[in-house]
Amino acid sequence: MKDFEFYNPVRIVFGKKQLEKISDLIPLKKRIMLLYGGGSIKKNGVYEGIMKALEDCDIIEFKGIEPNPSYETCMKAVDLIKKENVEFLLAAGGGSVIDATKFIAAAALYDDGDPWDILAKGSKIKASLPLADILTLPATGTEMNKNSVISRQSTNEKLAFSSPHSFPQFSVLLPDAAATLPTEQVANGVVDAFVHVIEQYLTYPVNAPLQDRIAEAILTTLIEEGPKAYADPSDYDSMANLMWSATMALNGIIKAGVPEDWSVHDIGHELTALHNIDHARTLAIVLPGVWRVLREEKKEKLLQYGERIWGITQGTEEERVDRAIDVTVKFFESLGIKTKFSDYGIPAETIDRIVERFKKRGCLFGMGDRKLVTLPVVRKILEDRL
Amino acid sequence: MKDFEFYNPVRIVFGKKQLEKISDLIPLKKRIMLLYGGGSIKKNGVYEGIMKALEDCDIIEFKGIEPNPSYETCMKAVDLIKKENVEFLLAAGGGSVIDATKFIAAAALYDDGDPWDILAKGSKIKASLPLADILTLPATGTEMNKNSVISRQSTNEKLAFSSPHSFPQFSVLLPDAAATLPTEQVANGVVDAFVHVIEQYLTYPVNAPLQDRIAEAILTTLIEEGPKAYADPSDYDSMANLMWSATMALNGIIKAGVPEDWSVHDIGHELTALHNIDHARTLAIVLPGVWRVLREEKKEKLLQYGERIWGITQGTEEERVDRAIDVTVKFFESLGIKTKFSDYGIPAETIDRIVERFKKRGCLFGMGDRKLVTLPVVRKILEDRL
User: Fold this and answer.
1) Is the pTM of this model over 0.95?
2) Residue among A221, A244, A257 minimizing CB distance to B14
3) A183-383 fold
4) Sign of dihedral through CA atoms B378, B380, B381, B386?
5) CA distance A342 to A329
6) Cα–Cα distance, B121 to B108 (Å, whole number)
7) Residues A321, A303: contact at Cβ < 8 Å?
């Protein structure tokens, strides 16, 4: 096992009728900004529940946060926060709204220049407005971590930041609010959580059997419960199991003491930035390519994954690795998620564009410190996905 | 899945050479009380490491905290804290030292009368001195929770309390400090952690597959790594895996959304109080009795446990339950831990005494709200263990 630090102070409040608790959870009663997206919270009862619970508070609303939330939209919220002297941010919705709120909370108190530097230059955040969230969509895990991903429309960039100031004070997880989700969004959530686990698990062995088994526990639960929630988002138990799995996938527990990869995400973000493809779908496109190209480097874990998750024990090592990759692709496809450039109409020239963009940023990444994903490797990974 | 809240703000710092970090972790530099036990930290280098890291601080030492830490000893520390105006408590050692420190930190600021009421009457703690710990022994999980168990010598009582004020600010987990442990203490740690998981897992199904699998992940890791650490406590990797398993066993993750039991602990505490038997050994005595007497109520989970942990798939349900119990007893015995009254010279009259003590306290407990463990059930459980 590698040495590690683990710290996660997010209070999770999970289940039915939990909205009533938020007035006790919010430490102050005035100047609260409620941030949300396109208005789904007005259809699933969450907006009404929040307003009822917070009827004694001053609520300033900020709506219209888009999927892949943009810097441009976030900065409009920052302006309103300054104008209205907002003291607490409450996000309601899915991962995009929460990610945006984390950035907005930091940008509102950022006084070292352009807040875009937090993303582009990794500038340190010294403070952040306090924030919390009501989660209505299982997927990104942002409700229980300190990370955020923001896009800039004007430059087609999609970048991440992470700060201990960005932990939500609490997150209320509402599986029943997810009952009215379009099934494509449920499918996205399953694949997103699945690949989050993979990025922290499918690297190389470091004798960390507990971490491996917890990662496998999440993968198996996603494979078992995800299709049920996809088939019927109003099946409370399956949605609850999916939602908790997605949170556990990215709250720091499974990465404690093990190497991480994140090359699938790094490459996937480029496909979203250039072609506006749903985040989870970009992961489903890239993952099989990463596994095929790095099959030697990841072989031990690919064999373990094949055996423990899919029961693949027969055949040569090469055959077993192939089967593990194939069955994963089939799992994504069973959720209606395609895995090839051609499925999304992405032209082959996109490969040159992505390689060029990584080149500009001087990127080398993949499998933690090993930095295996060089520019020629990115090219090979993407060529596998045409 | 049941509704739940999860909150755990303890910062974990895990691995080699982590003692150097404590001067950055402690928020202030003066009036720090270092609490420890019989002096093992002077043999394993931990005392020296702490003193070196904190050479700029005023350290007040309090040593001699015993296993099953006593109220009487704790109150001596409280007196010293008041006299010396101590501002921060740093525990170094195993679970007993940390549990004592949690109680001392609360008692030092308790002004509603006798601090024993915190344990005996469940009196609420309103404040606590800040505390942290250096863990040198994998077992109780107290390093990452808000619980503590304290004994009173004068009345032979052993009682627990839990308070959000009692979370350590940080816990430094040092697998290599456990290298010099007597093997019996390693065995105790494995069994203690094992039964912690069992109390939160082996109840009844509530469709919480992720929680089940994470519990199973910890059990399997304890079964795999525990015997290696027991055979050679200086085997760093095995000890590290055991230590992280013991922490994960009782940090709130596996109980989120599922029923709990704790009847093994409630009964086991009585054996420690009356006969001064090591905590873990009392659990090994009581557990098979609880399973035999509540085999119908726990049948579904006993079958799942037998199959997933021990591969028991053949035979009738009754045979499989019997085998699951037998193989667990054999596992404890393989670590040198006996499971019968007669093995410890406990007389049969102890059963009457325990039943009488529970009767006085008006106890009914076991499997959460179900309160299955009535006085006749306690008697049956203990009669099974003669």
Assistant:
1) yes
2) A257
3) Dehydroquinate synthase-like, alpha domain (1.20.1090)
4) positive
5) 15
6) 18
7) yes
C-beta separation of A118 from A106 below 8 A: yes
Complex ipTM tops 0.90 = yes
Q: What is the rounded radius of gyration, in angstroms, for the C-alpha atoms of chain A?
A: 20
CB contact under 8 Å between A213 and B207, yes or no, is no
Amino acid at the residue A222? L
pLDDT at B361: 83
Whether domain B181-383 has CATH 1.20.1090.10: yes
CA atoms within 13 A on the CB side of B121: 9
Q: What is the mean pLDDT of each run of 10 residues along chain A (386 residues)?
A: 98 96 86 95 95 94 96 98 97 97 98 94 95 97 97 90 97 97 97 98 97 98 98 98 98 98 94 94 98 97 98 98 98 98 98 94 79 94 98
Task: From A244, A231, A300, A116, select the one nearest B256 (Cα to Cα).
Answer: A244
Residue A189 CB-density burial (10 A; 0-12 exposed, 13-18 middle, 19+ buried): buried
Q: CB-based contact (8 Å) between B244 and chain A?
A: yes
Which chain B residues have a beta carbon less than 8 Å from that of A228? none
Q: Which residues contact A373 (CB under 8 A, 6 or more apart)?
A: A263, A266, A267, A290, A294, A364, A365, A366, A367, A381
Tokens of A195: 């690949």
Contact B5 A16 (CB under 8 A): no
Place of tokens 């929630």: A229
If you measure CA to CA, which chain A residue comes closest to B167? A9
Q: Residue B276 corresponds to which tokens in the numbers above?
A: 């001064």
Q: In B, which residues are within 8 Å of A2 by CB distance?
A: 15
Contact B308, B301 (CB under 8 A): no
Q: Minimal CA–CA distance to B288: which of B270, B274, B267, B304?
A: B267
Torsion of CA B254, B258, B264, B270, to 10 degrees: 90
CATH code 1.20.1090.10 region(s) in chain A: 183-383
Rounded-to-integer distance, Cα B299 and Cα B202, Å: 9
Instruction: Confirm or reject contact between B25 and chain A (CB < 8 A).
Output: no
Do the strands A32-35 and A59-62 form a parallel or antiparallel pair, or are they unpaired?
Answer: parallel
Cα→Cα distances A212→A71, B11, B220, Å: 36, 21, 12
Domain boundaries for CATH 1.20.1090.10 within chain B:
181-383
| The pLDDT of residue A141 | 97
pLDDT digits (tens, 9 = 90+) for B331-376: 999 999 999 999 999 999 999 999 999 999 887 887 777 889 999 9
Nearest Cβ partner for A1 among B13, B237, B253:
B237
Q: Give the amino acid at B70.
A: S
CATH 3.40.50.1970 spans which residues of chain A?
11-177
Q: How far is B218 from chain A (nearest CA, A)?
A: 6
Q: What tokens were used for A379?
A: 């090219």
Say yes or no: A3 contacts chain B, CB-CB below 8 A.
yes
Dist. CA B145–CA B121, nearest whole Å = 21
Six token digits for residue A26? 């919010």
Fold classification of A11-177 is Rossmann fold (3.40.50)
pLDDT digits over B309-329, tens only? 999 999 999 999 999 999 999
- Residues in A closer than 8 angstroms to B239, CB to CB, are none
Interchain contact, A253 vs B256, CB within 8 Å: no
CB distance B173 to B187 below 8 Å: no
Q: Which residues of B201-238 are buried (b: 16+ CB within 10 A; e: fewer)?
A: bbbeeebbbbbbbbbbbbbbbbbbbbbbbbeebebbbb
Mutate to test the interface with A, among B2, B5, B20 (most CBs of A within 10 A): B5
Cβ-based neighbours of A322, under 8 Å, separated by 6 or more = none
Cα–Cα nearest to A96, from A16, A199, A15, A189: A189
- Among B115, B124, B96, B133, smallest CA distance to B18 is for B133
What span, in angstroms and rounded, lies between the C-alpha atoms of B43 and B46?
Answer: 8
